[in-house]
Amino acid sequence: MFAVVIAGTLVINRLLKEYFERVRPDIHRLIEIGGYSFPSGHAMTAFSVYTILAFLFWRHISTRFGRIMLLIFSVLFIFMIGISRIYLGVHYPSDIFGGYFVSGMWCTLAIGFFQKYKNRNHAKD
């Protein structure tokens, strides 16, 4: 599940970057980076990684405190990575929000298929 989500994220990001061909911001850039800007690959990957990890670890954490900490950790890292891309001047805020949105849709779809497959196989037993 983890590998499928991450691989899918990378493929979707590449396809969207080639489709939109949005140039990166050129003012106040702290680092030099090539390629297109929209959607942010770092934002997409961070969202997918921390979302799928939270999904996979959720059932193995039995306490409410543990689950809350898992969610806080995941959201914090997703947010910090997005903000860092804007701070470095390599993305517009819309690149970050677009990346989050696309990864959110992809993770929802992947988790939905996973749950449907899991429930179908569980019903056969």
pLDDT < 50 runs, ≥5 residues: none
As a percent range, the share of strand residues is under 5%
Counting DSSP H or I runs of 4 or more residues, the number of helices is 4
Helix content: over 70%
Instruction: Sketch the topology as an H/E string, one letter per element.
Output: HHHH
What's the pLDDT, averaged over the residues? Answer: 93
Radius of gyration: 17 Å
Shape: flat
Main sheet: strands, sense, barrel: none
Task: Tell me the layout of helices and strands.
Layout: H1 2-20, H2 41-58, H3 64-87, H4 93-124
Helix pairs in contact: 1-2, 1-4, 2-3, 2-4
Brief summary of the model shown:
With 125 residues, the chain is mainly α. The protein has helices at residues 2-20, 41-58, 64-87, 93-124.
Describe the overall structure.
The chain is mostly helical and 125 residues long. The protein has 4 helices and no strands. The radius of gyration is 17 Å and the shape is flat. The two termini are 21 Å apart.
